[in-house]
Structure formats: C-alpha cells, structure tokens
Write a structure and sequence with these properties.
Layout: H1 2-30, H2 35-63, E1 95-100, H3 107-121, E2 132-137, H4 140-144, H5 150-158, E3 172-173, E4 179-183, H6 190-203, E5 206-211, H7 216-225, E6 228-233, H8 237-253, E7 259-266, E8 282-287, H9 290-298, H10 309-321, H11 328-333
Parallel strand pairs: 1-5, 1-6, 2-4, 2-5, 6-7, 7-8
Antiparallel strand pairs: 3-4
Helix pairs in contact: 1-2, 6-7
C-alpha cells in the first residue's frame, strides 16, 4: 500500500512540475522583461497546486491501490497450449505408465495428480467414484506425502516368486480417494512388475505407474504391460534427444499407437525444440505453473486448485486418455 501511495505522489508531483516549467518557459519567451515579476506572482499558487495534486494522488492511491500478485500466482505470459492428442484407453482397469525423459521433468507430480483427478471427479458405471492406485518413485513429493518405500520393498523380499492380494494392504489412502504406494530405487524389476500388475488390475479401477529410470528390462516390461505409456519431457534439447530415441524404438516395434509425449513446464518465453514435437503420434502440453512447485512441497494435489494453469491441461488430457472414467457430466457435478 505504501509503495502505491508513493507511486501516485510521484506521478502527480512530476505532472505539476512539468506544468510549472512549461508556464515559466512560455512566459520567458513572450515577456522577457516581465519574467521576474511574473515568477514572483506565479510561484505561490503554483506551489499550492503541486501540493494539492500530491495530496490528491495520495488519496487516490490509497483508495484504489494497484493490484499485486498473490504469492504463487503466475505472473508471466501463458503459452499457447494446443489441444491434446492422446490415445483413448477404454480397457477395464487400465494401466497408465509414466516415463521421465530427464530428471525433474514432472513425471511424479503428473502421475500423482492424474490419480487424484480420476478419484475426485471420475465415475465408474455412472454410480460410484473410481478406485485408482498410483505407484510413485521415491523422492521429494513422496516425502511430502509421508510415503515410505520400505513396506513394498520388504514385501518383495518376502515374496520372491509370487504376488498375492495382500500387497493391496500396503497402499496408503489419500484424502482424495486414490491410494498410493512408494517405489524405492531397487524395489521393482521386470519380473516383479509382471507379477504385480495383474493383482492391481483386479483390485483397482485404474493403475498409474511411474516407472523408475535406468533399468532397460523394467522399462520394456512396463511398456508391454501398460495400456498407454506417457513420456514426460521438459522443453529442452535433452528431452528432445530422448524422445527421438523412444520414437525410433516405438516405430520399430509397432508400439507407436500406445506412446504419447507430455511436454511439461512449457513457458511462453522458452521455445519448444522441434525435435521434441515430432516423431510420435500423440502429444499433450502442460504449461509452466508455480502453483505446482508450491503444492508439491506441501504434498497437496494442485489439480484441485482452480488457480492452477496446469490443472486445466491435465483435466483435458485426462478426459481424452480415460474417456470411460472421466466424463463431462462427472466433472460438472464435482
């Protein structure tokens, strides 16, 4: 408030001084002989005018302060977001796998918020909320959510050749309705994932899986057992190079129809590399949004925050990706 008052005072003071200078110059040019007497007569009222203008500026600035951004509210220009083009997954109890193309690209937060979105506003057969489960790689967000990778890791150490329904008891229920499991860096491998997915399909309406990076066997099994694999990228050349490699393998193996690229953290001031936007059939874009980082630190789902830019993009591609779980009627009812 004080800065707005000072700004208004400065504006009116400079305006008053400018008027005074123009008056003096005009008088000097036309009546040089009367300058001294004119200045003597004009100075007191001019000073009074400036003081009155300054006071008026202070009153106006106090009554109508300039708006200031709310902490965490986006203040940069929003990029032009093209409509998503994602494959529709219509299988009962679908599996959606998230693959990070580079560190800190947003795969964990997108996977978590997709599960929350489905749990909060989706429907199953039009009469109940879905029951999704989300497997998240251990990191900053899982710490904020209070998740521990030890239970699932210990489970696999005691179940080396099989997975039964008791694994469901390890899931932590989130207030939104989705359930969460934390995956440590060495918890999953290809064989464990093959055993786990059928059990989760029987228990849940949706399985969202963030696939740990670095294990080629695990990644291949995740692509094979999932209905759609989402490649999460940043608008960088590093992500573009990784996306091109994925595209080459997908076309060679005939998997191009079940892969999609999600370009995350896209800003209006940062051009998206051409290599990132080509090679795959399906694409969605999520804009840069400071609300995401703020809510991740607190363990809150930003997809439920109406001021979030990323929320709208995620909602659009969730409807397209999961049309049987997400529908416009359910979204309006929520």
């Amino acid at each position: 408030m004080a800065s707005n008052v000072a700004r208004g005072v400065r504006v009116f003071v400079w305006a008053g001084l400018s008027v005074l200078v123009v008056m003096v110059v005009a008088m000097a040019a036309s009546h040089a002989s009367q300058v001294a007497r004119g200045l003597a007569l004009a100075w007191p009222p001019a000073t009074l005018v400036v003081v009155v203008l300054a006071l008026a500026a202070a009153v106006v600035a106090a009554a109508f302060p300039w708006p200031t951004p709310v902490p965490g509210e986006p203040i940069d220009a929003e990029p032009l977001i093209p409509p998503p083009s994602l494959p529709a997954c219509r299988r009962v109890s679908p599996v959606i796998a998230f693959h990070a193309l580079e560190p800190r690209c947003g795969s964990t937060t997108l996977a978590f918020n997709l599960a929350v979105q489905v749990a909060a506003v989706g429907t199953v057969a039009g009469d109940r909320r879905p029951r999704p489960i989300c497997l998240l790689t251990a990191g900053q967000l899982t710490t904020s959510l209070g998740l521990d990778p030890a239970p699932l890791n210990n489970y696999f150490l005691s179940h080396r050749a099989s997975v039964d329904e008791s694994v469901v008891d390890l899931a932590v229920r989130h207030p939104s309705g989705c359930e969460l499991l934390c995956v440590g860096p060495d918890t999953l491998n290809g064989q464990r994932l093959r055993l786990l997915i059928p059990v989760l399909r029987r228990a849940y309406d949706l399985v969202v899986l963030e696939v740990p990076s670095g294990d080629r066997w695990l990644i291949d099994v995740a692509v094979e057992t999932s209905d759609v694999s989402l490649l999460i990228a940043k608008p960088t050349l590093k992500s573009g190079s990784a996306a091109a490699a994925w595209a080459d393998r997908a076309w060679e193996r005939g998997l191009e129809g079940k892969l999609a690229l999600i370009a995350d953290q896209v800003a209006a001031t940062q051009p998206v590399p051409t290599s990132l936007m080509s090679g795959l059939l399906h694409l969605a874009v999520v804009p840069h949004d400071p609300v995401v980082a703020t809510n991740d630190l607190k363990g809150f789902p930003w997809v439920l925050r109406f001021e979030s830019r990323a929320r709208d993009s995620l909602a659009r591609f969730a409807h397209q990706l999961l049309p049987d779980l997400m529908n416009q009627e359910a979204d309006r009812a929520a």
